[in-house]
Amino acid sequence: MAADNQTTLEFPILPSFTLKPVPRLLPWISDFHLSLALPVAAYWFMSLIYWYIDRRDWFSKYRLHTPEEFKQRNHVTVGEVLRSVILQQVIQTALGLTIGYYTNAGDFMGREEYDTVGWAWRVHRARNVVPWILAILGVDGKTLSYQLRSYSLPMPLTTEKPLAVLSAVVYPHFDRGQTFGFSAWEIWTAKLIYWVLEPAARFGIAVFFSDSWQYFWHRAMHSNRWMYRNMHAHHHKLHVPYAFGAFYNTLSEAFILDTIGTTLSLMLSGLTIRQATAFGTLSVMKGVDDHCGYELPWDPLQWVGRKVGQDVGFHDVHHQGWGVK
Questions:
Q1: Taking a C-beta distance cutoff of 8 angstroms, is the pair 76, 248 a contact?
Q2: Using an 8 Å Cβ cutoff, are 205 and 42 in contact?
């Protein structure tokens, strides 16, 4: 009877919950304002690091261009780049503040147990696919039931339901009590999904959409002469890229690629504000690193770039007049 109940468990009574704001990560700034400030701070912090490395002439053997090339080949001054990037960041921050004001952006807590039980129910229901998986693998459920019966607990089980026999064998090793009618392993699996796998999946969705959005718009700007001339050629005035020139773009390009792209990524993925802060900060750091002008073998961001074919060297070639367009 116990195994049968485990197999046909009705939808449980979900726990009640009360939502309340998530405490601030830092006491002197809200998480929402931190999500706007941290990517900007990361941009200039990383840029200053590379500027200092350049000034001290460290790691010169990893430099992609000489200081003379930096002075002679770029078609825009450092001052123009600084003004353009700062203006862009001011506008984007203002837009972010406006959106946050009208949407009352903020994270809430209190429904963790509710959502965990919901996932436990899905895990419980997913066990019903085991007979199908056995069939696909060419395993006869009835035969397996007979073979496992000698290891199972003494209880009335039917060989018509191999899942029931499997449950009787597995449960003694995983159960340590019941929570909302679910076994311990189902609850722990639900917690793993809720706290680890679901956030990782959301983060992956955000990365995939953002990268795809950037790629296809970037490709369009190189394929369409009008778009390249009026929107993207601005960025390619830097034939010798450097860190704080990563976001040297026209306002139209920045709005399409960064503002709209990032906003849609966050909306589709459903990231929390703290997760969005991590996503935005890492994205900015990768962009700065792609333009740093140094191929550093120990740089983790560049290691990832080399694995996916989008490293500093590739991006540097792209900035050349003869490079990949």
A1: yes
A2: no
> Which amino acid does the sequence have at 153?
L
DSSP state at residue 22: P
State the Cα–Cα distance between residues 272 and 107, nearest whole angstrom: 6
Q: Are strands 182-183 and 178-179 parallel, antiparallel or unpaired?
A: antiparallel
Q: Which amino acid makes up residue 126?
A: A
Interacting residues of 278 by C-beta distance below 8 A, sequence separation 6+: 203
Three-state DSSP class for residue 109? strand
Q: At what angle do helices 198-223 and 261-269 cross, to 10 degrees?
A: 150
CA-based max dimension of the chain:
85
CA-based nearest residue to 258, from 245, 249, 267, 269: 249
Given a cut of 60, whether residue 322 has pLDDT beyond it is no
Write the CA distances from 177 to 96, 188, 194, 309, integer angstroms. Answer: 47, 12, 20, 49
Which residue, 212, 258, 250, 235, is CA-closest to 323?
A: 235
CA distance 242 to 45: 14
Sign of CA dihedral 277, 282, 288, 290: negative
Give the span between the Cα atoms of 213 and 205, in whole angstroms. 12
129 pLDDT band, cuts 50/70/90, is confident
Question: What's the rounded mean pLDDT across residues 263-273?
Answer: 94
Which amino acid, one-letter code, is at 46?
M
With H, G, I as helix, E, B as strand and everything else as coil, classify residue 146. Answer: helix
Q: How far apart are CA 115 and CA 46, in angstroms?
A: 38
β-strand partners of 29 = 26
Task: Spell out where 130-214 has E strands.
Answer: 178-179, 182-183
Q: Is the model's pLDDT at 92 over the cut of 90?
A: yes
Helices (H) and strands (E) in the chain, counts: 16, 4
Token pair belonging to 196:
């680890």
Q: What is the pLDDT of residues 171-184, one digit of tens each?
A: 444 444 456 667 77
CB contact set of 169 (below 8 Å; sequence gap of 6+): 148, 151, 152
Q: Which one-letter amino acid corresponds to residue 19?
A: L
